[in-house]
Amino acid sequence: MAKITSKTVYKFQYAVKFICTSDIPGTSQTTSSFPPGHYQTVVNIHNPATRKVKFRMKLADPGVISKWIPGGLKGDGVARVVCDDIQKFEIITIHGFEGFLVIESLRSLDVTAVYSAAGKNGYVVSIDMEQINERKLR
Predict the structure, then answer these.
(1) Could you tell me if residue 2 is inside a domain?
(2) What share of the chain is helix, strand, coil (3-state, %, to 5)?
(3) CA atoms of 72 and 67, how far apart (whole Å)
(4) CATH of the domain at 47
(5) How many independent structural domains does the chain possess?
(6) pLDDT at residue 4 in the model
(7) Which residue of 27, 32, 77, 87 has the fewest C-beta atoms within 10 A of its own C-beta?
(8) pLDDT < 70 regions, the chain
(9) Across the strands, what pairs with 79?
(10) Which string of DSSP letters, residue by residue, matches 2-29?
């Protein structure tokens, strides 16, 4: 497997809309972006190859771009990124996050986002899945 260095040239990129926030009227968690409710994203990453693959991830929103977090998956391996993982990117969020999870890899991956929204009672009222297209770099 190739060693990852600062000069590593990643071949594929995935930009996943990543939302982890709540809009609760009458509190400090009121936004104009979303109707009242709780919003979460789960990103599933699958390595369809038989060999291990290295990748890296970062979070980006209009105010901040995080550091890159290294990752890797064995052949046919699966990883997931959830809202609780935001702290690993070492960014400060006060009322949640709305931006992008950017993944760069040495080989093609399967990347799927699952978006859910819950109403004021806490029950899920909406769920959607999206297969994220890869972008070839360089």
Answers:
(1) no
(2) 5, 50, 45
(3) 17
(4) 2.60.290.11
(5) 1
(6) 57
(7) 32
(8) 1-6, 24-33
(9) 45
(10) PPP-TT----EEEEEEEEEEEE-TTSS-
Residue 28 belongs to some domain of the structure: yes
| Per-residue model confidence as pLDDT tens digits over 107-116 | 999 999 999 9
Q: Quick one: tokens of 91?
A: 């960014």
User: Residue 78 is encoded by which pair of tokens?
Assistant: 């699966």
The three-class DSSP label of residue 55 is strand
Q: Tokens 């990752």 map to which residue?
A: 71
Nearest to 56 by CA among 3, 100, 110, 13: 13
Q: Enter the pTM of the model.
A: 0.89
Tell me what pLDDT residue 31 has: 63
Whether residue 6 is contained in a domain is answered as: no
How far is residue 112's CA from residue 109's CA, in Å, rounded to a whole number?
10
Count of Cβ atoms closer than 10 Å to residue 27 Cβ: 9
- Phi/psi for 89 (5° steps) reads -85, 0
The span from the CA of 21 to the CA of 13, in Å, is 25
Structural domain containing residue 82:
12-136
Check if the beta carbon of residue 114 is closer than 8 Å to that of residue 41. yes
